[in-house]
User: Fold this.
Amino acid sequence: MLFKEIIGQTSVKERLVRSITDGRISHAQLFLGPQGSGSLALALAYAQFISCKNKQQTDSCGTCSSCIKYNKLIHPDLHFVYPVALSKDVRVSTDVAPEWREAFLSNPYITLYNWFEQLDAENKQAVIGTEESGEVLRKLSLTTYESEYKIMIIWQADKMNAAAANKLLKILEEPPDKTLFLLVCESEDQLLRTILSRTQLIKIPKIKDEDLINALVEKNGLSMEAAESTAHLADGNYAEALMLINENENATQNLASFQKLMRASLKFNPKEVMGWIDEMAATGRERQKNFLKFALHIMRESLMLSYADESIIKLGGNEEEFVKKFSPFIHSNNIEQFIDELNKAHFHMERNANSKILFMDLAFKFNELLNLPKPI
Assistant:
């Protein structure tokens, strides 16, 4: 992965390159950025630049033996840890290494949802388990083969269970010689404070609209008008933009599910609510979390439409039609509670809450909030 292949993030790239040229490479770094910002791609480009045998001024050469292996994710001194769906046959990341290479190389802006679709494991919880820490120790006990450093990239580091996180902490405190840990995550809230304190933080912002628009035109062949509309919807998230471009089936399903939930919740039709809950409970946990994020997006756009000029709202056809009808129900008396309830639901879903109970509670809350009077 070359820095030039990553969308925007110019200041982050410059900082990473400068740390290498100045010889200030921290042994443990946390690449913290929202979904679709390119945090994983940046970590890999950084690792490749460190290992490159013919470094250019601002990027890897892309043609040396090290870069060629990095481009295929087969460099012997590059190691990955990522969440898996634990089963009898899958205990650690290396058990699904071929699938990981295929998934990342096809989309360097891969999301957890994309990854579990690739594994056909949407109904299972994503976790970096206790056995993974033993595998990390085993890999890092090996001597380097070709590069000066052994590099361990831990994607979605906040998915480590407590035992794995505590074992990793011990390695971070006393790292093997010439070993780099590059942790990548979207939220620091679930990481141990002690891990945070032992890593150098690399904050990665959302992609700027201008950079995202240019990428959508150049990489995906969109017209300027379509790119601007997609960038607005994606809100700095290239993974979301790709989903919108490809008219991902999940987006259509999410809108249909949201419409059904709102209609059932408004007058609280028990039969319709229970039918919706059964449908949603039958989907995977990542799909359920994806729906909650979509609901937050619809709430935001509905509020904007209620209080702003309609010309600044740019939605897809079906979404726009629904939001125009739904927006009168979203106002200053209930928007904070809606957002709070959806965020809490996502928080509890992350912690393996019972989905039927969670969605039933959400339907009751929505019934109350949808019927709050609009301020005069």
